[in-house]
Design goal:
The protein folds into 4 domains: about 1-225, Rhopdopsin 7-helix transmembrane proteins (Up-down Bundle); about 230-300; about 305-460, Beta-Lactamase (2-Layer Sandwich), CATH 3.30.450.40; about 540-700, Histidine kinase-like ATPase, C-terminal domain (Heat Shock Protein 90). It has 21 helices and 14 strands. The chain has helices at about 1-25, 35-55, 65-85, 90-95, 100-120, 125-155, 160-190, 195-220, 230-260, 265-285, 285-300, 305-320, 325-335, 375-380, 440-505, 510-535, 545-555, 580-595, 625-630, 650-660, 690-700; strands spanning about 340-345, 350-360, 370, 385, 410-420, 425-430, 540-545, 565-570, 575, 605-610, 615-620, 665-670, 675-680, 685. The strands form 3 sheets. A 6-stranded antiparallel sheet has the order 3-2-1-6-5-4.
Length: about 700
């Protein structure tokens, strides 16, 4: 009964693949790769029919049947490889004449094919039968792994739109190899083929036929648009190599156990552990990975680089935040040629290129003048200097002496110029590559353009640092300017006091005003000294009654002529501000009004309210200002109409009023006078909620 089920299973498979073959040769005749696909279907049909014949007539499996099974797997592998190479026309002979890896795969498949024929034709004893089983299972597991990797690569590298047309073929062909892997890995584990799994194999293979047919119907072009990326090929090659290595080590371990006698098991365990450790070491070896990348680029592609991937990686490396841009530049450029180390030299204002950053190489203290012949060579010719040719007869730099200090760096190899705006910004010294790289035009061009890009990043960082220093000086100068302005006002007050001392020194009221003025000046100087000692500080905000603040500001100007007059129409209005800064900016406006007004003129300061806003108006009958001056120069720092003026009083006033959320309005007429109106958000004694909000804001600040 079992024999009839098994033979029926393989007969169904043979019939299914025969139908697919007929359809390919008739309805789908002429489609891309149809000949290779038809050949794979014919071989699979022959294999399934041969197995069904042997089982139906209870014949032992012949050498021919085993050879057909190897040919079946090999034909599907070749079909997948052709799909992965869009430039081929589907002809097997065209594919064979391609790059070296194709011949390597064919040699492997041919060796496995003929070794299977040889082993099965020489079986004559139980030991030979065991060896045959091990050889068959190992080889067929390797074929299954290879097939699965190719299916995965085919599907992964297809575009999203193209996957709709090939996904069923991937399921069908992948199912063939997945079931083979399951069957023969089970046989390797238990040292015998499971008859139930082997019996169901024919039906499983038959199920894959409609899946392949759907893909042929959906996608007549099959492989157009596929491009195998270097990264995926690298990982796939690494995975396949590791799988092949482990299978080889497992087979070797089995032989050690089989022939080792009492020590066989111990030797097998020790050998397998050592093999795994060696594999891990190789996988983590930078030299091995570098060699594999170079080998893939050299033998699988027309160009050495995947420029999209390289440029994305290069730009991402340079764009990562942090303070180590110099080291990142070295790593980004070194990775293009598999270099493990380097040193960055940057041009300084002294006219020397100095080492500023290093990566896996001593920084050193050697410098090179930007006017030297070597630096001129880098700047004018923009050559990538190969130090390995500096001393031989092929030296292209014969007219320029290579600096001796470059030879002192360990494994010094390349000097890459960094050009910015046509000038030498610096250069990078790279160590010898992990694997041998031929410096052809493609490599040199990529290094040059990458060097230009890296130089722009370094120049941008240099400019940003210079700008930051300039802003620090600007901040310091600005603070110093405000300090000087305050000192000027204090000096003016003390000078006026001194000029009136001889005339009014016996007057008690003058003596009182003199003491108050000196005390006020001393307090202001203390505040200035505190600011100088601790730098810029955060304003302490509070709710301030404006009537008291204006009274104090006007009283401090009482020694001047004309003496300002104060009018308070809204005594309950308050504002939320820093008392010292607000009094200072109002004092600036009052002082300006006094200085712009003749002694017989008038200066009025008035406090009122307007729509729950505090309004402070400072009005004089002085010389006035033109509209052009107000529009273009009044709020510009360091512009003043006064001989001894510094031009920052109104500028500071405008900035602080804006900071408080207020508004400064100016009305002026030449020879008539000027009116400054300060409008601030007000808080009133009858506004409880507003006062509470102000106190909350004060605590938060």
């Amino acid at each position: 009964m079992l024999i009839s089920v098994v033979s029926l299973s393989y007969l169904v498979a043979a019939f299914a693949f025969l139908i697919l073959t007929v359809v390919l040769m008739t309805k789908w005749h002429g489609r891309l790769h149809w000949k290779t696909l038809a050949a794979a279907c014919i071989i699979t049909t022959s294999w399934a029919a041969t197995l069904a014949f042997h089982i139906l007539f209870s014949l032992p499996l012949s050498t021919f049947a085993n050879a057909l099974e190897i040919a079946r797997s090999a034909s599907w592998i070749i079909f997948l490889l052709i799909l992965l190479h869009p430039q081929t026309s589907g002809n097997v002979f065209t594919w064979v004449s391609g790059k070296p890896y194709k011949q390597v795969i064919l040699i492997f498949l041919g060796t496995l094919f003929f070794s299977t024929i040889y082993v099965h034709s020489t079986i004559g004893d139980p030991l030979s039968a065991k060896i045959s089983l091990i050889t068959d299972t190992f080889g067929r597991v390797a074929l299954a792994v290879m097939g699965l990797l190719l299916v995965e690569q085919f599907f992964r590298n297809m575009s999203d739109q193209g996957r709709w047309g090939i996904k069923f073929a991937c399921l069908g062909i992948g199912g063939l190899f997945a079931y083979d892997f399951y069957l023969y890995s089970d046989a390797m584990l238990f040292r015998t083929i499971n008859p139930e799994i082997w019996a169901a194999r024919g039906l499983v293979d038959a199920i894959s036929v409609p899946l392949i047919a759907i893909s042929v119907a959906r996608n007549p072009k099959w492989s157009l648009g596929i491009l195998v990326s270097r990264r995926m090929l690298f990982h796939s090659a690494t995975l396949f190599g590791a799988a092949f290595y482990l299978l080889a080590m497992a087979a070797a371990g089995y032989y050690l156990r089989f022939f080792g006698g009492n020590w066989g098991t111990v030797m097998q365990v020790a050998f397998l552990f050592g093999a795994v450790i060696l594999l891990v070491v190789l996988l983590f070896s930078g030299s091995v990975r570098s060699w594999l990348k170079v080998f893939i680029s050299k033998h699988f592609y027309n160009y050495n680089y995947d420029y999209r991937e390289e440029w994305i990686r290069f730009t991402r490396t340079l764009s990562i935040g942090g303070d180590d841009l110099g080291e990142r530049v070295i790593r980004a450029l070194a990775s293009l040629v598999e270099s493990p180390a380097g040193v960055l030299f940057v041009r300084r204002e002294s006219g020397m290129c100095e080492p500023v950053n290093n990566w896996n190489m001593p920084l050193g203290n050697s410098t090179e003048s930007v006017n030297s012949a070597f630096s001129k060579l880098l700047e004018e010719k923009q050559w990538v200097v190969d130090l390995s040719h500096a001393d031989d007869q092929t030296n292209p730099y014969a007219e320029v002496a290579i600096p001796e200090w470059l030879q002192h760096y360990p494994r010094a190899w390349l000097v890459l110029p960094l050009i910015f705006n046509g000038k030498l910004f610096g250069f990078i010294l790279l160590a010898e590559a992990r694997s041998k790289i031929k410096l052809n035009w493609e490599v040199l061009d990529l290094l040059k353009i990458a060097g230009v890009q890296a130089a722009s990043y370094l120049a941008q960082e240099q400019s940003a640092n210079a700008l930051m220093v300039a802003r620090q000086f600007e901040s310091f100068n600005r603070m110093s300017t405000f300090m000087a302005h305050d000192l000027k006002n204090l000096v003016a007050q003390l000078s006026l006091l001194l000029s009136n001392a001889e005339k009014h020194k016996e007057n008690p009221e003058f003596q009182k005003d003199m003491v108050d003025t000196i005390d006020h000046s001393v307090q202001k100087m203390k505040v200035l000294l505190q600011k100088l000692s601790r730098g810029a500080s955060v304003d302490k905000l509070a709710v301030i009654p404006l009537d008291a603040l204006l009274s104090h500001a006007v009283d401090s100007k009482s020694p001047y002529e004309p003496t300002p007059k104060l009018e308070i129409n809204s005594p309950d209005v308050q504002v939320f501000a820093n008392r010292e800064r607000l009094e200072r900016v109002i004092g600036h406006l009052i002082q300006n009004a006094i200085e712009a007004t003749p002694k017989h003129g008038e200066v009025h300061v008035k406090l009122s309210q307007q729509h729950r806003h505090a309004v402070i108006e400072i009005k004089d009958t002085g010389v006035g200002m033109s509209e052009d001056f107000i529009r273009d120069k009044l709020f510009s720092p360091f512009v003043s109409t006064k001989v001894a003026g510094m031009g920052i009083g109104v500028f500071e006033t405008k900035e602080y009023i804006d900071e408080l959320g207020g508004k400064l309005e100016i009305m002026s007429r030449v020879s008539v006078g000027t009116s400054f109106k300060i409008i601030l958000p007000g808080y009133f004694l009858d506004d409880t909620h507003a006062l509470q909000d102000a106190q909350t804001q004060k605590v938060t600040s």
